[in-house]
Amino acid sequence: MPIRGPVPVKLYKRDAAETLRVGPLTIRVYEDGSLTENRVSAVLVEVPAGKSGPPMHWHRFHDELFLVTKGTMTFVTPDGEVTASEGDLMTVPPGAIHTFKNASETEDAACYMTATPGHYVDYFRMLAKASEGGKQLAPGEVRHLMALFGTFPPDVESEP
């Protein structure tokens, strides 16, 4: 049924964003899909100098967009590396094998990331909870959490 009548808008303030720590990354959750009926979520991913994001992976069900807002981010794919600078946008459709890193040893980087559907932000929440206090997750634990959200390492075939 279409939405009728006044629909609220919402301003998300950085200081009020839910803040998650996943390894060296800080993830600020602005929209977790609750206002968009899970059509999209929006987070800010902060990557310290010289640090990497997740292991190489692909998503069965969702798209990601990464808009670099600070520094440079290097996106790694089976075809090689692509460096995105502030203001550049990387699109990652379902099935695309990828990861990212901050290749700079001196400058922190950040990117605004959206995921569709929006509930994917719960993956970050689960990772943050599982790794509280600096706990290192075993590779099997990471693969299990990834699989719960249709995310797989490169050696898992994209077709059943």
Automatic annotation (TrEMBL):
| Boundaries of every Cupin type-2 domain copy | 44-111
Q: Which Gene3D superfamilies match?
A: Jelly Rolls
Listed SUPFAM superfamilies? RmlC-like cupins
Q: State the source organism's domain of life.
A: Eukaryota
Put simply, this protein is called RmlC-like cupin
Source organism of the structure? Canariomyces notabilis
